[in-house]
Amino acid sequence: MTDDDATAADRATVPGPVEVLREIGFWLERSRAETYRVKAYRRAADIVAELPDDERAAHRAARSWRDIAGIGPKTATVIEQAYSGVLPQLLLDLRGAAKPIGAPGKPLRTQLRGDLHTHSDWSDGGSPIAEMMGVAAALGHEYCALTDHSPRLKVANGLSADRLRRQLDVVAELNDRMAPFRILTGIEVDILDDGALDQQAELLAELDIVVASVHSHLRDDSATMTKRMVYAVANPNVDVLGHCTGRLVEGGRGTRPESSFDAEVVFEACRTFGTAVEINSRPERRDPPSRLIQLAVEMDCHFSIDTDAHAPGQLDWQGYGCERALANGVAAERIINTWPLADLLAWTEAPAT
């Protein structure tokens, strides 16, 4: 092979501008960069992807990307470099700067087969279902649950029953295209003030994964909160108790203390009714705190290590949860998303014993 042949081959391996822009967005999200920076690259990717072929060819020939609303000088430079067969320096820098996430948890991370708590732009996530799930598959997952919010959480554009049914049709179509990777149908359903769930019971029964979480009245007294959580955990449609204390320990939303509840009573309900305790991997949550993970281990609970991802780059945060699980004595066999898909679904569908 001549030098010219080698150069041509190298250029052939450079992704197109849409893929490059989205990968830049991935690394920015993964590193918890400012939201406006992430949106700039993801918006530019969407704009280029949606251009008709003739318009795209015209802008490429004229190098007029900055004439398009929503494409600025930095994103235009990335587009031109990608089209010229040069891997943009920004992407090289982001790849090089990426640090391992939760490195001590790597042995456990390699055993996880999926993620059971993620969000798309159908509720308060930032990306379409197909993009979220494509990244999940690229990260090595065999399955991933889509768990957008339920209707009461209006600030998060929660899904009504009708919207959720429409989403199930979209997921079915994607599963036909993405097999053998499997998108699990799901929801993050609000636990209401009386412990009821914020969605129709018959619809919840159709879903593969139901994560139940408290998002309102987090400062209720311990007795009230305990009752709410136990009622929800005992519901036969619930598979995972999400971010149980509701705390925030850092980040742009500020901090928030733990909710007060009787953890022994709640975790005993989780054990009795076959509901996994979520270890939420979001850096600003780190929920439950270590002492409660250890208590749930002592009480023989099952666990689920989830990202609660709202963007593709956040799907790589699972290592944070794995690190905390290993540090607190959680055995891999007690983590339901280390299980093969058939075993997981048999467990979520089985009645409590």
Task: Describe the protein's topology.
Blueprint: H1 3-13, H2 17-30, H3 35-50, H4 53-62, H5 73-83, H6 89-97, H7 106-109, E1 114-115, H8 129-138, E2 143-146, H9 161-178, E3 182-190, H10 201-204, E4 209-213, H11 222-234, E5 240-241, H12 263-273, E6 276-280, H13 290-298, E7 303-306, H14 318-327, H15 341-349
Parallel strand pairs: 1-2, 2-3, 3-4, 4-5, 5-6, 6-7
Helix pairs in contact: 2-3, 2-5, 2-6, 11-12
Question: Could you explain how this protein is built, in words?
Answer:
Helices cover 45% and strands 9% of the residues. It has 353 residues and is α/β, with parallel strands linked by helices. It has a 7-stranded parallel β-sheet with strand order 1-2-3-4-5-6-7. Helix 2 (17-30) crosses helix 5. The model is unreliable at 1-12 (pLDDT under 50).
Brief sketch in words of this structure:
This protein has 353 residues and is α/β, with parallel strands linked by helices. It has helices at 3-13, 17-30, 35-50, 53-62, 73-83, 89-97, 106-109, 129-138, 161-178, 201-204, 222-234, 263-273, 290-298, 318-327, 341-349; strands spanning 114-115, 143-146, 182-190, 209-213, 240-241, 276-280, 303-306.
